[in-house]
Amino acid sequence: MGSQWGKDRVYSRAVREGYRSRASYKLLDIQDRHQIIREGDHVVDLGAAPGSWLQVVRLLTGGIVLGIDLVPIAPLEGVRTMTADFTNPAVVEEIMATMPYVSVVLSDASPKLSGQRSYDQARAIALGESALALATKVLKPGGNFVVKSFQGEDFNHLLSEVRRHFLSVRTYRSRATRRGSTEIYIIAKNFAGDSP
Question: Which residues are known catalytic residues?
């Protein structure tokens, strides 16, 4: 457990309240503002390690909760995990074998940052596109999708791609995001289908 940004106030609060990272407060903030997850929803969390969003999701729904990451996720009561690369198309079949349907897909995944802003942003957009591709294959009609990205020259392309599939799409900067960061979330509600 930890923060790539060091032990600031939000990190200290996460430790005190039993969350695995500061990212928990980002999802709590998104949920408070946009009501993405409902009681009974089946939720898939992509790039889920260390599991802080899974901790929040487990509090919000009694449905199936599945976390997927390249690295193993320490066990959480009532949460299923899968060690896999979610950009691999075979993962879709594994998800569908695990869950009768998917209500919500979340992705707080981020590439390892190099410090080269344009390169990091391009990689983050590619990761977001992979998360969207998976979401369009597994979400039930009317389902919701949240994906983290970074503002920059390619961001509007990802945003327009999300808008092709969802009836309501907004951007949101969480109050828990560090000052100066270009991090932004796309909040997409009411999946309308995998349009060509």
Answer: 148
